[in-house]
Amino acid sequence: MEQSIEQINRKIEKGDAVVLTAQQVCDLVDSGEDIRAEDVDVVTAATRAIMSGTYAILSFPVESSHSFLRAKEVYMNGVPAHVGPCPNERLGILDLMLFGTDHSVDDSRYGAGHLFRDLAERMSVEVKVVTDKGESFKTHVTLDDMPYAMLYGTRHAFKNYSAFVNTSDEPAASIFHAMEFGPRLTEATISGCGQINPVKNDPLLESIGIGTRMLMNGSEGFIMGPGTRSSAEKPNLTAFADMHGMKPEYMGGFFTSAGPECIVSWAVPVPVTSDSVLESIKERDRQLKMPVMAVDKRACVGYSDYGDVWEGTDLMIDFSPNECIGCTLCEPAEMCPMASISFEDGEVKLDRYTCFNCGLCSTLCVTDVYTANLGSINFELGGESTNVPIVLRQSDKKRALELSEKLKEQILDGSFRMTSMVERIRT
């Protein structure tokens, strides 16, 4: 059975289309349902994770014409911006590129991911400009002051990412952990939303291609092609979207022991155009291979699967403030990569709006204020079975599931219309 995206769009317009989330399809398969291609027209897939390959291009006025020749350096809330490529000579306008991994020169825990979220929140951002003559001035802008603000992903939505461990005898700092990795395989971190990830649901990129409309951080954008380091075994994608339509709850900054990183969310419609696409959609977490990487040598030391990560585990952290015993130093609050834990009048608070459900707090708290089953990874190492507990997740499957549901609703109510690809993506 084959059908085109145009045919599916017509069915949606008539109210005859069946749209399911990737999770719904997997749940039906687990319950014993025989899902055929003619039973579903579109599957919505999503992911929310740290995605280092992110940058923004912003253009906006900061001064009147002739006020300065051109900018040499620019900082936004202390985050360095790369000036250009257009110099905008004597126009008082900046064209800037900001890398998602750039950090503030004033605050080591604040990075471009935090800045992008602050802009989406419509917060006022300080802009410091150093001109080519060495003069400097400051002003403030909001996202609404920017005629042009686009977010780009150069390496997003990996079909399957990795688990990370430290095989050395010494602690190791890494972007893959909010703390230093404990030595000798004492803890693991993971990334990847498994069976609901967009590229997992179309790994051969038969339905997703150049020109596919998608949602990045809740804003409509388009897929441009393969991402950097994309391969047939681990494909990923490049895309862009307008920041003006982005939802702050789907983005942000995440602090790691090697500095702040950038959180990005994707939601992508996967039209069921053939039986082979459906077969990929039906694959569950236990069938998805997950490489285990040693951060101390950045080498693969084995393979687990996403069943270890998401089957039978808790997607959300359980919060019981009455269990707090008032430690002199609250390690969960100190180490929370989202700064979501605070104290007010001596009472502990958890900001669910910013919480990433990474689970680190549940591994640090000496009581049961924060609890969650994060699972553990199992793999063969040196001919022996190895089990390493997961202490931190760098993907938020709970919010990703919400995103896939929202995209499903938008497709059905007509507010999101699927596009046919211009060309297939070759990995």
Automatic annotation (TrEMBL):
<dbReference type="InterPro" id="IPR002708">
    <property type="entry name" value="HcyBio"/>
</dbReference>
<dbReference type="InterPro" id="IPR017896">
    <property type="entry name" value="4Fe4S_Fe-S-bd"/>
</dbReference>
<dbReference type="InterPro" id="IPR017677">
    <property type="entry name" value="Methan_mark_16"/>
</dbReference>
<protein>
    <submittedName>
        <fullName>Methanogenesis marker 16 metalloprotein</fullName>
    </submittedName>
</protein>
<dbReference type="Pfam" id="PF01837">
    <property type="entry name" value="HcyBio"/>
</dbReference>
<feature type="domain" description="4Fe-4S ferredoxin-type">
    <location>
        <begin position="315"/>
        <end position="346"/>
    </location>
</feature>
